[in-house]
Amino acid sequence: MAFKYPAARRDESKVDDYHGSKICDPYAWLEDPDCAETKAFVEEQNKLTMPYLEQCAVQARFHKRLTELYDYPKFSCPYKRGKRYFYFHNKGLQNQDVLYVQDSLDAPATVFFDPNKLSEDGTVALKMGRLSEECEYFAYGLSSSGSDWVTVQFMKADNLSPLPDLLERVKFSCLAWTHDAKGIFYNCYLRQEGKTDGTETTCNINQKLFYHVIGTKQSEDILVAEFPDHPKWHSSVTISDDGRYAVLSITEGCEHVNQLWYCDLQQLPNGITGLLPWVKLVDNFDAQYSYVTNEGTVFTFRSNLDAPRYRLINIDIQKPEREHWATLIQQHDKDVLGFVSCVNQHHLLVNYVHDVKDILQVYELSTGRLVRDLPLDVGTVVGVSCKKKHSDFFYKYYYHCDLSESNPEPKVFREVEVKGIKQEDYQTTQVFYPSKDGTKIPMFLVHAKGLKKDGTHPVFLYGYGGFESSIQPHYNVSYLLYVRHLGGILAVANIRGGGEYGLTWHKAGTLGNKQNCFEDFQCAAEYLIQEKYTTASRIAINGASNGGLLVAACVNQRPDLFGCAVAEVGVMDMLKFHKFTIGHAWTTDYGCSDDPEQFKWLIKYSPLHNLPQPPYSGPPYPAVLLLTAITTIVWCLCTP
Where in the cell is it found (predicted)? Predict the structure, then answer.
């Protein structure tokens, strides 16, 4: 089918100089989403695209079946605050999950907070929510139409009555209550020129940390930390399990490193009244330190310091010199240490990732001794709920375990079934294939049981490969539709750049090594063809955000290898991404064209700059669908 695409004006005078290289940028005017010419172009593009998509003969059937498959009850893990349990629940097709509360696990549940009542079309979402330590108050952040800007409101947790307190200009923020429930730490930006509805493209810099006292106006909030000499720094506060310390993590960009400061709140005779006297425990960006718990002055952190697969370390803040730091749990020889939480006062709930599959174990806090393994099917722990002061915990697969029992065993707490779906009808396998340099890359394949490898099956190949984010097995309705009703194969390639095997795996797909990501993904397609699962014309590739970049770069480099490509909100201009919204934070993974050496890497694969120039005589490009938004603002591009 031939299309007449909208005309796009070329401004031949727009030429950028990158370290002596002249790069034409004739469509730079499209970077202004508020320009009338840009709006007209977008409208014309949609007038071309939408009628084509709407004429799909099976679209209505797809929509009906997707709706049926998605109409099943969804639950989060329960979590305990005060003496009550809370959990999120969606009956099936509600726009937003509803927060429920119950006095005990056996007691009837009632609605605590329903975001669906905030807007008729479901576009007002609960972006963040925090109950105070003993469940006196609930702070909740709302966003509209997918914006990252949040307005934080408050209510009493006992009678659900609203409070007049209101926090605005909140974005990429923590919410951390002091244990006395007098106030809450949060981050915000100063007022900026122009609009702040989530469609602006201005950079987000100079974030500040405030403390809000309940019952006061935001204008009276106390500035507790700012970094005027470092406008790109972001901060986040965690209150220690004993409530005594505020632990401050400072980051710059998306690299998994941070500075670590703390403040002893008990040493403030007049309470929080101004900039806090922060003690710099770590004042550089050499590694990541994530607070787990503390026993008095001995703090436990998950860290990648000298441990690319992570370990647990103890730091006594009374003896903060590095030579006094001690390892509590050593780095594993192969597996990556994932999340760690303290439970039952003296135990650690520890997650390891073994070849992209989760392991869950209980360790002793005082010694780092393994106590027991917890039962898991092959897959991913998608939710955990526990606190140090509580003996019980939940993990999703929906198990409940109470360590105060004489013989604690995880019990199935809740089971969810999807109508008409039988697990035994499907098969999930993990394969390892060689990339161009010989590195073995893991890939999950999901298909109908008994599938014959005859080269006739359509394949949906998904990848991400960035920001140390691991792509692990999880249930997805759209994937199920593809496998069940189209006879397709879902292939998820765990390419380098992610965190599947720790920091070394991640760095092998970043900066000057980014080409490894593209070759890993291309070799996944070649493997599927060689193993007679499919042919090139039957392979559809997909990725979002950083994965959208992956898809676009691979289409440019190997158009012959794919039959279809869907790139969602991809980073397409690798020379200028850092100049818009939070893009400057992504330079830790990509590099920055302001640097002469890094410019050389970026220009080689930047999707926009590697489109073939007419006349083109190479292999035909696959069918390509580009999905975008007015702006796409992702703090760390790490939510694939």
Answer: Cytoplasm
